[in-house]
Known about the structure:
Blueprint: E1 61-65, E2 68-72, H1 76-93, H2 100-105, E3 117-123, E4 137-146, H3 147-152, E5 162-163, H4 165-170, E6 176-184, H5 191-208, E7 212-220, H6 228-238, E8 247-248, H7 266-272, H8 275-283, E9 286-287, E10 292-294, E11 299-307, H9 313-319
Parallel strand pairs: 6-7
Antiparallel strand pairs: 1-2, 2-3, 3-4, 4-6, 5-8, 7-11, 9-11, 10-11
Amino acid sequence: MTPSDPSSRPGKLSPATLVRRFVPFAGQPLGAPAIDVGLAPRRWLPGMRLPGLPAPEPGPTLGRIGDLEVRLARSGGEVRRAQAIRYHVFYDEMSAIADAMAMATRRDSDAFDRICDHMLVLDHAAPAKAFRRKKPEVVGTYRLLRQAVAERNGGFYSASEFDVQPMIDRHPGLSFLELGRSCVLSPYRTKRTVELLWHGVWSYVLTHGAEVMIGCASLEGTDPRRLATQLAFLHHYARAPEEWRVRALPDRYVEMNRMAKEAVDAKAALHALPPLIKGYLRLGAYIGDGAVVDHQFGTTDVLIIMPVSALNPRYVTYYGADASRHAS
């Protein structure tokens, strides 16, 4: 799901964010024509409309703190602005390797953008850019993929790294939501922005009745040996129980149990973890079995599994059982 914090990582969960309700932009309402992710990718250009794709509907505000607002993208232009932020964070600031298309457009995009909901944080006080009409600036984003939409379009993004289907099959009555591509512009990486993102995710979860959140979260770096303490900590202290256990794909599996539990300095390991992963652990998230090295983005990924029923009551109370804390 993103490098490791709302300020980091592409296509994966990043270090510090989460929440829900929005109107689908390319996420299509139930019953809309399915778009095959396997067919759309290679010939799709960022911002290009696919035949039969419903026009985005105006979405409600999910929350507001001062001049900052969180809501779903309402147009292709807003999605492209989110993609531009992702490019800046993942490629300019971090170590992701851009292909020709990404370099030419300066946008981070993939086929999943066409079927996901895009949550945005907008700054209504941002100054107008030269020779342009003043409008709120997109300063943060999160990508959301509901199970019903994923199943009509080839599956979840995280399935490219982790074998998630057996877990889903073990819980046939539950609704899954995938979180990913989270990032926030550097000047806005504050408690207020992160709180608003989490409020948005929680609102979205309640609106759509999601019961389990999943996504890839990232540790920076591609050498598991240098990440041994963090990986071992997650293995020994946060490994998912059997009913929620998800294993990395066999050809990508990286062992996380790299040292004995007694040898792990838990305090130091927790401190070294990316903000997003720490945030997920505080919420009550579990970690899958095995990590995956993502050389394109320069990260080592783990899978986050968060059943809503297991969320820390403290956070549910803080944001409100009806997501009313920052409701506008």
